[in-house]
Structures are given as structure tokens and as C-alpha cells.
Specification:
By secondary structure, this protein is an alpha+beta fold. It contains three helices and four strands, in the order αβαββαβ. The strands form two sheets. Strands 1-4 form a two-stranded antiparallel sheet. The radius of gyration is 15 Å and the shape is globular. Bound molecules: iron/sulfur cluster. Iron/sulfur cluster binds near residues 54 and 73. Iron/sulfur cluster (SF4) binds near residues 47, 52, 53 and 57.
């Protein structure tokens, strides 16, 4: 039991370190929770400033993502409230062409 817990903690730290490395050195696009668009609702899902406004997330999860009035970028206007919405948000996250959608869990 103790050993399992230790492995999980180490894996979490490993993933966090890898994400930090790639954000700092630009080796991989990962949404940056320090660079969220200002319109995003409070909660785990967010859009960062790398969004190119392709509208794919709005088409994929219309209950949770919206475009700004000027159409320059998307934002999370409502956090998912059930498994179905969470599934669509996860699909939007996975489909974003510039990895501008994040989920802090
Ligand atoms: S899918 Fe990504 S790039 Fe396209 S509008 Fe949504 S957040 Fe922006």
C-alpha cells in the first residue's frame, strides 16, 4: 500500500516536471494555466492565450465553450456539470490544434 502511494506521487511529480520543462523550453505545446484568457469561468477547464479562434471547441462542447464577441478566441463560459459535458470538454481539449485548452483537474 505504501509503495503504491509512493509511486503515484512520484509519477505526478514526474508529469509536472515534464510539463514545466516543455512549457519553459517550448518542446511541446501544453496549455499554460498562467496565461488564461480573461473570460474563462473559474474552474479546472480553461483556454489560454495561444487560442487561434478556430471554433472547434465551440462545435465540440457548445455548452461549455464560447467565442468572444469579436471572434478572436474561445473561452470556457461554463465548467462541465456532468459526465457528458466533461467528456465533450475532454474531447475539445484533445482536439484543439494548438493545445490551448487545459484542465487543472
Ligand atoms: S479549439 Fe483551441 S484554437 Fe480552436 S477555438 Fe478552441 S481553444 Fe481556440
Amino acid at each position: 500500500m505504501f509503495l503504491t502511494s509512493t509511486i503515484v506521487i512520484e509519477n505526478d511529480l514526474f508529469v509536472q516536471n515534464i510539463q514545466s520543462y516543455y512549457i519553459v523550453y517550448g518542446g511541446l505545446n501544453i496549455a499554460d494555466n498562467t496565461n488564461k484568457v480573461p473570460e474563462s469561468s473559474f474552474g479546472p477547464y480553461y483556454v489560454d492565450e495561444e487560442c487561434i479562434g478556430c471554433e472547434l471547441c465551440v462545435d465540440t462542447a457548445p455548452k461549455n465553450f464560447k467565442m468572444t464577441d469579436d471572434g478572436t478566441h474561445a473561452y470556457v463560459h461554463k465548467q462541465p456539470e456532468n459526465d457528458s459535458e466533461k467528456e465533450m470538454c475532454d474531447e475539445a481539449l484533445a482536439s484543439c490544434p494548438v493545445d490551448a485548452i487545459g484542465n487543472d483537474g
